[in-house]
Amino acid sequence: MNRLPNKTVIVSIFIAGLSVSLAGQSEQLAISRTEWKNWNQQEILQNAEIHPSHVAANTFGDLIVLDMESFTVATLSSEGMLRLTGGWGVEAERFSYPTDIAVSFGQDIFLCDQATDRVLRFDGKLNFISDVDLSEMQPTRVELPSRIAINRLGEIIISAAEQWELYQLSSDSRFISRFGGRSYGEERFGEIVDIAVNSRSEIAVLDRGNKQMTILSRAGSILLTAPLPDEEIVGVESWRSGWLVINSNGKLFYLSSGSRAFSYVLSVQDKMTQIAPITDFTIVDDEIFAANGSIISCRLIIHE
């Protein structure tokens, strides 16, 4: 684990509603956010009886949502074009206990089905491509896939429930490595809530069991850990050179590059809008989209 030099001075500053911890070369950002509001395309999802539990986005800014209750995956473009796939089942494009979705940089969509230990793959138009039975992988089988992320190399990162380990697969779904198990000793994961990757293929692991977020290199080395700022943190995403996390009430916290302390992102009105509990979120440029049975959004404001 990397340690801060003894002579490093940590300074906290408060600018425009956000406290940013500076440690050595940490990024200096002053940001706030707008209030939560309904997404302008939410009515299309509502008319299709889609109630998002998970959300992701491709590089074009199209949203991909998962409705766990109706076993449906939907894509919705900013122009309002809606596509649907899924259904209850155990073969091909059907699934029976979906737990997460992710989008590759090639626009393919991946879904974890915990009931069948499969990862399903669709193209950007939701045409079914393939599935992988993780329980039959060699030399290490993966059971109860819980969260999924895809790095820029197309490698697939999967967390497994109960074992609370990470598994790294190649772009063609071959086993590469596993992280976070007994070999990590006291640093082994306790209860993984969410995972994310950034442009450097570093992996952020929200670990509720150990009440911390761990940042790993692509090879699985621990780069740093930071205490979680809230007990109800549900999601993490890469943003600029740092990481954003969100709690179920819509509070946002930012971990700048090199820092070991989260900062609370205040709204411009300095108040909290009452919203249904959030279960997932994604970021498109500086706009945040959150799933809570519908899609709500807010915008991050960077103060020069």
Report what the structure shows.
With 304 residues, this protein is mainly beta. It has one domain (10-302): TolB, C-terminal domain (Neuraminidase, 6 Propeller). The chain has one helix and 27 strands. The strands form seven sheets. Strands 3, 4, 25, 26 and 27 form a five-stranded antiparallel sheet that branches. It has a four-stranded antiparallel sheet with strand order 5-6-7-8, with no helix packed on it. The protein has a four-stranded antiparallel sheet with strand order 9-10-11-12, with no helix packed on it. Strand 25 (280-284) and strand 26 form a beta hairpin. The chain is globular and about 55 Å long. Mean pLDDT is 90; it is low at 1-25.
Quick take:
By secondary structure, the chain is mainly beta. The protein is 2% helix and 46% strand.
What is Rg? 19 Å
Shape summary: globular
Order of helices and strands: EEEEHEEEEEEEEEEEEEEEEEEEEEEE
Distance between the termini: 33 Å
Mean pLDDT: 90
How many separate domains make up the residues? 1
Number of strands: 27
Any low-confidence stretches, pLDDT <50, length ≥5?
A: 1-25
CATH superfamily: TolB, C-terminal domain
Under the CATH scheme, which class?
A: Mainly Beta
The CATH topology is Neuraminidase
Secondary-structure content class: mainly beta
Helix content: under 10%
Percent strand: over 45%
- Largest sheet report: 5 strands, antiparallel
